[in-house]
Amino acid sequence: MGKGARKAREARNGKRRSSGAAFVARSFEGLAAEPELIALREFVPSATARLPVAGAEREIHVASVLPGAAAAMVRSDGTAFLGLQVQAKSSDVSRDLGRALRWLRDADTGDTLAVPDTTSEPVDGERLQDQLDPDVALEPELHPDFSWWLPPGERDSAGTDPAVQRANEAIMPTERLLSAPAETGQATAAYWVDAGEKAHLRWVRPEPESELLAALARLSARGELGLGDGSRYAGSFRAHGLLVPVWDLDREAHPREWVGPAGELGDRLSATLAGLADQPLDAAERRARDGLLGRQITIR
C-alpha cells in the first residue's frame, strides 16, 4: 500500500473514532428528570410525559416507546413525541435523543424519524442537557395499552391495529408508586411491576452508587431494608450510571398497598444517606455491602 493511501485510510479511521465520542456512563446527569427518563427508557412499558423543552414552539412529549421503536414522531393530530426505547444508540444516549429532539422541533405533522442519528460528528448544544430545563422533573402518565399512539378520534380502531395489538401483548402491568413532592422538584421513579410469577418494586435512585450502596448496607445490617411482610430485597441493576434497587413483592397485594411501605423505606434511606459522612460503615455493615454487591440482577 502506498504512503498516500495509508494516510487516507488513517484519516478515515481517525474520523470514525472521533465521531464515536467518548462513552458517557451517566447519560442524563444534571437533569431533575434523570430518574424518570431512565425508568421510561429501561423498563416502563407504556408511558408519556410532557418534556420541559426550553424555547420550543410546540409542546413535546417524551414516550417510553413509539411504533416501530421510532426515535420521534408527530401524530396526525400534531402531537409530538420523542421516543426513549429505540433501535440504535451511540456512546452518548443524551446526544442521540437530543438530535431526535432537534429534528422534532421542526418536523411536519405525520412525520416519523425511524432511528436516531448516532454517527454524525458531535456539535455543541445538541444533548438533552442543552435543550431541557434542568430543574423540571417529569410527571409520567402511565397507560394500560398503546392506543395513545393514535389520535383520540382514531382510538376506536386501536384494537384492530396490528402494531398496537403486538405492543399490547408485551405489556407487563406497571404502576408508579410515589409522586415527587412539588416543592422539591425531584422525581422518585419508583415503580411496581407485575412480571408474571412475581411483582417487583424497581426504584431508580439519583444518588452516586457508592453512597447508595453504603446506605442500603446500613439498612440491611439493621434489618430495615424490606418493605414489610411479603417483600424481599432482590438485588440491583445499573442503568445509565445510576443504581436501580429491586424488591420482590407479593403480587397478590394491590400496588397501592406498597405506597406507604415504600415511602417509609424512602424516609429511612434518606436519613441514612444523610448520616454517612459522620459515621462510616462498621464491620457488619461492610459485610452487608459486600453481600449487596454480589446481588446484581438482570431484568430482561
From TrEMBL:
Pfam families: DUF5926
Occurrences of domain DUF5926 (ranges): 28-300
UniProt region (Disordered), positions on chain: 1-20
Name of this protein: DUF5926 domain-containing protein
